[in-house]
Amino acid sequence: DSDFFGDVRFVDGDMIGTGDKATSRQGGKIFRLIGKALLVTPDYSIRADTISRDTDTGLGEAMGNVSLVEPGARNLVTGEHAVFDRKAGTALVDSMPALTSREDSGGPLTSRSGWMRFYQDEDKVVMVDSVRIHQENTHAQADTAVAYGQERMVLTGEPEVRIGETNRLVGSKIEFTYE
Questions:
Q1: How many beta carbons lie within 10 A of that of residue 63, not counting itself?
Q2: Where are the beta strands (DSSP E) in the chain?
Q3: What is the pLDDT of residues 3-52, one digit of tens each?
Q4: pTM of the predicted protein model
Q5: 109: burial class by Cβ within 10 Å (0-12, 13-18, 19+)?
Q6: Distance between CA 148 and CA 158 in Å, rounded?
Q7: Is the pLDDT assigned to residue 87 strictly greater than 70?
Q8: Dist. CA 127–CA 98, nearest whole Å
Q9: Cα(168)–Cα(43) distance, rounded to whole angstroms?
Q10: Which of 10, 68, 161, 165 is the most exposed place for a label (fewest CB within 10 A)?
């Protein structure tokens, strides 16, 4: 077991981590970055107050002021707690998640919900519990929303979409396709 202090940097294959402090446990199997923690992989970057990761399982956890960014900074996810599985290509943000997606047209799309699960290989985001979505003059709400990349979104559970001041759509399921 080891503790490291002062602008810590580690490299593990194609992954780089930095922080004010780091701990290594179980012969390097479990590591934790503490204070201004940053973990960069080819698939995403994570910033948080603390990031822990199990190098054998690929499971990790980020706590406090969490930001996940994919390459190209097209999508930004923030929250207070996240669990990620690098091998499965998934991440769950389960405390105050917010997603900002830089769209090709229509300005940034922002989404908030009780929790969000990201599936990297499928380019899919599942948002559950009091979903709220906003883009320019369009506002949507639903119990659940599933976004399929930049192509399609499905709202279920009493969905409602308001476009401007006068247009309102309701139903049991609302599906959007983006052009």
A1: 19
A2: 2-12, 15-25, 30-40, 45-54, 59-69, 75-85, 90-95, 98-101, 109-112, 115-119, 124-135, 138-148, 152-156, 160-163, 167-170, 173-177
A3: 899 889 988 888 899 999 999 999 888 999 999 999 998 888 999 999 99
A4: 0.88
A5: buried
A6: 20
A7: yes
A8: 10
A9: 38
A10: 165
